[in-house]
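Reopening this one. Same input as before:
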Amino acid sequence: MSEVKIIKADLTDMIKIPGGKFLMGSENFYPEESPVHEVTVDGFYMDKYLVTNEEYEKFVNETGYVTVAERPLDPGEYPSVDPELLVPGALVFQKAKGPVNLYDYHNWWAWVPGTSWKHPKGPESSLSGKEKYPVVHIAFEDAEAYTKWIGKELPTEAEWEFAARGGLDGKNFIWGDEDVQFSKPQANTWQGEFPYQNLLIDEYEGTSPVGEFAPNGYGLFDMAGNVWEWTNDWYVLNLDERADEFKSCCTPAVNPRVDNPGGSFDECQPQVKIPRKVVKGGSHLCAPNYCLRYRPAARQPQMIDTGMSHIGFRCIVRK
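Same output, byte for byte:
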């Protein structure tokens, strides 16, 4: 890999987010979104669009960067996995043929060797015609490497949620309280019974080009659906119930961030020792019957070493 030359941040195609107070979280949907609490964030600039394939390709061409999905895997780090499976690749969504057990993600995710950001659906796929689509299969360090190169940063969870709300404080969705995805889609999500029936009311089966749907109140595109977005915060299940445990890592409600991975491991899988960051915004795979998370308060943990076919990112500049 060649030496990474840092570019001075260009504010072109970035939106100035004013900052201010807002009610972060929700008590209407999933427990990890509660409690609702008042948060203040300073102003910053945020990318109007998700980082695209052509933008990430420029970064790779100029730096020689190799993403996590393209690197050989160390058998010592995965003792319970068949060594023959430890080849570069990534998880790709596979549409089911009918109803399946929604508690088993193996019914729609498959490890596909040779998959990466430049081969998003497997080794035979390419980015031809997908230049303006969001880059995917990006692990956390892949996103962070890009942001450092371009002179920007990843947002905190609070900054991302404040920007996503677009001034509509306390609303369920970035456009208001009503879910209109089955009548007049405002984002790229899954309409139908996940993971086998997609009615395509929004006209997209997978990801969509950035900027295809109306922007939010701040002029930001794709803050709901399309792809999940990395934030810089370590995942905490519930700040209220576990306040004592995370007191040392969580600053007060002014520009809050969780910058200690101590509690971010998967409680349901104690054998998994890889900490997790917060991703926000939902994706084209979110459906009301499974993952109603195309909302600003929605949040999800993501292991930092894993990119997937529905995870991307955008950048901010703090000024």
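So the earlier flakiness isn't reproducible anymore. For the record, The first strand starts at residue 14 and ends at 17.
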